[in-house]
Amino acid sequence: MTNRLWLRLASVVLVIHAVLVPVLISGLQFIVKRSLADVFIDEVRSYSRLLADELELGDALVTRERTLTLLDSIILSGRVVYAEVVEDGQSLRSTLVAPELGHFPGDDFEFGDHNDRIYYLSVPVSRKTGPVALRLGFDESLTWEHIERTRLRVLLALLAFTLVSVVLAIWLAARIAKPMIDLQKAARRIASGNFDAHLSARSSIHEVQELARDLESMRSELVGTNERLSREVVERGTAEAERRALEERLRHSERVATVGTLAGGVAHEFNNIMTPILLYAQTALEEIPPENPAAADLKRVIAAAHRARALVNRILAFSRDFQSGPNTLVRIAPVVEEVMALLRAIVPANIEITVDSGRDHPPILGDPSLVHQLVMNLCTNAYQAMRSTGGLLTVRVIRERQTSDPRVPRGDYVVLDVADTGHGMDERTRSRIFEPFFTTRDVGEGTGLGLSVAHGIVTSMGASILVDSEAGRGARFRVYFPVANPAGLAEGPEERRFERTSSVPSTSLAK
Amino acid sequence: MPSVLIIDDEEEVSHALERVLQRAGLKVTVTLGSAEGLAAFEREPADLVITDIIMPKVHGIAVIKAIRAKRPETRIIAISGGGNFGPLEYQPEAITTSAYLAAATQAGADAVLTKPFDKSELIEAVQRLLDQK
Fold it and tell me: Do residue A264 and residue B13 have CB atoms under 8 angstroms apart?
């Protein structure tokens, strides 16, 4: 069905009318002619009878002159155009009969006989003198005009009826089609992606309303499905990103763990090997005279062994299991002060140190020895970045109740802020500084584990570490420790633990 | 002359200790491993035992406990290279050097030394413990 609805409906109406209207017209015309003719015939017959009665009773036919006068007066009265009296074969015709009319042609049986627009009629008149026939001819033209006029009216009425029907059909079609067109437009908008287009039809037609309702429920279902799908796509994207981040973290911690295990193993063997070297060298040094040139060599062996021991201790720190540390309430301030006291002894004089350990801040949850190590590593990293140039090392502990940095989840934090004015680093370096064994220093100047260990500690404590740096413009490390929930743990033993663990030599590690 | 028993599966370490302590004027017996060491202690209890902690089969912690149980007056120095290497069978739960040494102290060691230690550290610890006797 490719036609438009209104065209279709109008065509159907037209076809119906094309069949019905001619039948109606001929039927109606017949009825019109019949009824009007009957009226005419009835009228002329009763009029003729009236005249005949008058002739029968009166004395009009007594003389030829009086008869003529009568006939003339009949014609003059109108309607009658032919009047003749026949008596004994003798015809007497009115002189007023139009000369073009011929002889009386005989009686008309039907209206319109003889095709002469005259209705001929003869009426017998009984006279004492013998039978007389009154022959009359009535003018049919008025009635014919009446018939034609009526026929024309009927025709016009039917044509008007057809026209009205067609218009009605078109109007009805439009009325049905309008809401459907609206629905179609809305459907097209939906198809083009605008799911907010409501599918409603302002129609009083039940079926159209039903259709609109069904389509609208389909639309809202579609919108729901669409929203759900969009949400799922987003959720899947997020989940995928989270999964990748988790995988990355897992890979990272696996790598760190592997390196840690390896480092631990190597350290154990190495320490065993170093023991006889150190002991034999020291014994030998005591057994030879001080002036022996070998004495100096042995001192160098011992010094080298000491350096090796220090290195192994740093590597060993890395093999620690960060997860297994005891979680207690830790106040950062004393840890920072302890570390800074150690650092002041080894930091070159060209580096100025500023410390604000924030004694009033609340405790955090963690392993005090790890916090010690973390502070140590960050500070060591900072001062080493300024070793040749000198600069300012700023260590601060601050409280951030409502952190504004988007890289850190919202929360209440104690922040360890370690900033230096050293050489800084570029983006490429910054992205790798937490990798184990990654170092920008010369071979022998660092293990490349310091910041990796720091990162491991931060992660194990549920803290976050931020790095801000630009090449040549110093570096700033900030560690966000969540403030410990005071209800979580009783405060107290951290000082003691700190004392014990901070005395373990392997916890000092420089990158 | 005070007697010292050395128990360490690392031969080089054992002999270096022997050399240092002999030179310090002590009677030294060297054993390479916990079983051998405990057998030697059984035959002739020493005044001082120096034992490694991470050793195959019988762990140094077990050695300390056995000696402590047998002869409480014996002085014991635990030594360890730390780390976490080696077969799991002789690894305690704790894996850090400090944890090893803490475990040794808890088991009854009088002193702990982290390898590699200086000769002076060793002599100082040995003398201190023997003086206590």
Answer: no
pLDDT in tens, B79-130: 988 655 433 333 333 345 555 666 778 788 999 888 899 999 999 999 999 9
CB B62 within 8 A of CB B16: no
Among candidate residues A421, A419, A400, A508, the one with its CA nearest the CA of residue A464: A400
- Give the confidence band of A68 by pLDDT, cuts at 50, 70, 90: confident
The answer to whether the beta carbons of residues A127 and A56 sit under 8 Å apart is yes
Interface A-B: count of C-beta contacts within 8 A: 103
Three-state DSSP class for residue A245:
helix
The tokens describing B62, both together, are 């077990």
Phi, psi of A425 (to 5 degrees): -155, 160
Closest to A502 measured CA to CA, from A368, A340, A332, A397: A368
Instruction: Give B61: exposed, middle or buried? Use CB within 10 Å, 0-12, 13-18, 19+.
Output: buried
- Give me Rg for the CA atoms of chain A: 64
CB contacts, 8 Å: B81 with chain A:
267-272, 275
- Contacts of residue B115 in chain A, CB cutoff 8 Å? 271-272, 274-275
Domain with CATH 3.30.565.10 in chain A: 320-507
Identify the DSSP state of A459: H
Q: Tell me the C-alpha distance between A219 and A201, whole Å.
A: 14
Cβ B115–A501 below 8 Å, yes or no?
no
pLDDT > 70 fraction of chain B, expressed in percent and rounded? 83
State how far residue B82 is from chain A, nearest Cα, in angstroms.
5
Question: From chain A, which residues contact B within 8 Å (Cβ)?
Answer: 261, 264-280, 282-283, 286, 305, 309, 316, 319-321, 501, 504-506
- What is the pTM assigned to this prediction? 0.41
What domains lie within chain B, and their CATH numbers?
3-132 (3.40.50.2300)
Q: Which residues contact B50 (CB under 8 A, 6 or more apart)?
A: B4, B5, B6, B7, B8, B17, B76, B77, B79, B126
What's the CATH architecture for A5-163? Answer: 2-Layer Sandwich (3.30)
User: Among all chains, which residue has been given the structure tokens 């031969």?
Assistant: B11
A146-184 tens-digit pLDDT? 888 988 888 898 889 889 988 988 888 887 777 778 878
Q: A320-507: what fold?
A: Heat Shock Protein 90 (3.30.565)
For residue A442, give the DSSP letter: P
**Minimum-distance CB partner of B115 among A264, A274, A282:** A274
